Amino acid sequence: MKDVIKVSTVAFNAKWGDKEANLNRILGYIEVAASEGAKLVVFPEMGLTGYDDEEEKPKAEKMQMKLAELVPGPSSLAVAEITKKYGIYAVFGMPERDEEDPEIIYNSACVCGPDGVIGAYRKIHLPYPEPHWATRGTKPMIIDTEWGPFGVGICYDTYCFQELMRYYAAKGCRLYINCTALAKCHGIALGSTTLEAGCITNQIYIVSSNLAGKDLYNVFWGGASILGPSTNFWEAEYFAGYPFTDPKAIQNKMYTATIDLALATREKFEPNSLINGATDYRPAIYKEMMEDLLKDPKFQKTEF
Question: In 220-281, where does DSSP find H-type helix?
Fold first, then answer.
């Protein structure tokens, strides 16, 4: 398994509702990232179409509904053609149409790689206003690469539900991909604080890509970044890009860095000789806690 990898992330000003223009720019960034030696490039949540919801419109008339695609579908196949050509992984956000029920749409992160379309991660946790058009996903997604497994999450999954990143870290992931659409209306602490905390508590690298600038209504922070474990104990280091609230973060720009995944140590998930070879991480206890929570009816409903 390889340790050292060059990765890119894009602070991307998506043109709301203009899928063709956004796809053309995504393809261009992938080609340039590959020319710079990157083996992974990440784009924001809903980067293919733009994010904002027209709340007054019924679901059938919403932009997300009209522009949704299957995976594989036209956009993912176009991206896959480039990723196969250059031997690179690319992850981009899009509205995904369910393969069995075309009325069901997911907020998804499509993953393509050297062998073509890999699949899509469907966002598990949906904040307001996404339930107006999207259905919640139910499964994590791990990508198998030469550098080991990579985990995928989207925005609210990352900032407010640490279970997902922790699961990926426990499964051996040394890198977490965060496609996000974090707007200025969400305040200054939600994004950077939780990314840094996730990096520190899971000893994992994070490649995060955010929308940048004006969408339809909202202004998004930008703040694409590559961060990971610091050589200073229990600190996070920015290897490229900016925290969300940095004044420079809003620029539409690609950031690239070479990172050493060997520094994503796995101590809490490995046998500890001081406790008879058990791990510090204790899923059996957490399972009991979760089963106790499931006795409460409010946690038993899983679908809309």
Answer: none
